[in-house]
Write a structure and sequence with these properties.
single chain; about 140 residues; mainly alpha; two-stranded antiparallel sheet; about 65% helix; elongated
Length: about 140
C-alpha cells in the first residue's frame, strides 16, 4: 500500500496492480486539469481500473528495465533488453507488451549499425514474438 499526494489529494492504493493505479492517477490528473479524454482513452482507463490488462509487478518491472535498455541503442543494452523482456515473459506469459518489446529487440539485432545477428536468425524470432503478442489480445500502448 502506498500513499501519494498531489496538491490537495491523497491516493491510497495497493501497488500489486500497478496499471490500475496508473489509470486511477491519470484520470484524476485529467479531471484536475480539465483535460477532455476521447472515448477510446476513457475506455482504456476504465478497463485498466477494472483490472483488465493486469500484470504482475515483477513482470512490469522487468519490462520497464527492458524498455530502458532497448532505448539505449547500444549492442550490449539491446542484448540486455532481450534478457529483461524474456524475464518479464517468464514471470507473466500473458503480458503482450513484453512480447512486442522482444520482437523489437530481435529486429534491431539484425539491422545496421548493429548487425549482431543475421537477419535469417533474428527475424523469425522477432516475428514469433510479435505474433505471440498479437495473439494475446491485450491493447499495447
Amino acid at each position: 500500500m502506498t500513499r501519494r499526494s498531489s496538491g490537495r489529494k491523497t491516493y491510497e492504493r495497493d501497488l500489486s496492480d500497478v496499471l490500475s493505479v496508473q489509470a486511477d492517477i491519470a484520470q484524476a490528473i485529467a479531471r484536475e486539469i480539465n483535460l477532455a479524454l476521447n472515448l477510446s482513452q476513457t475506455a482504456r482507463l476504465a478497463d485498466l481500473q477494472k483490472g483488465h490488462g493486469r500484470v504482475q509487478s515483477a513482470a512490469y518491472d522487468a519490462y520497464l528495465k527492458a524498455r530502458y535498455n532497448l532505448h539505449q541503442m547500444t549492442p550490449a543494452a539491446i542484448k540486455k533488453s532481450i534478457e529483461d523482456f524474456e524475464r518479464a515473459i517468464h514471470i507473466d506469459q500473458k503480458y503482450a507488451p513484453a512480447y512486442a518489446g522482444l520482437a523489437s529487440a530481435y529486429a534491431l539485432l539484425a539491422i545496421a549499425p548493429f548487425d549482431l545477428l543475421p537477419p535469417h536468425e533474428a527475424m523469425p524470432k522477432a516475428e514469433k514474438a510479435a505474433r505471440k503478442s498479437l495473439g494475446i489480445g491485450q491493447l499495447i500502448r
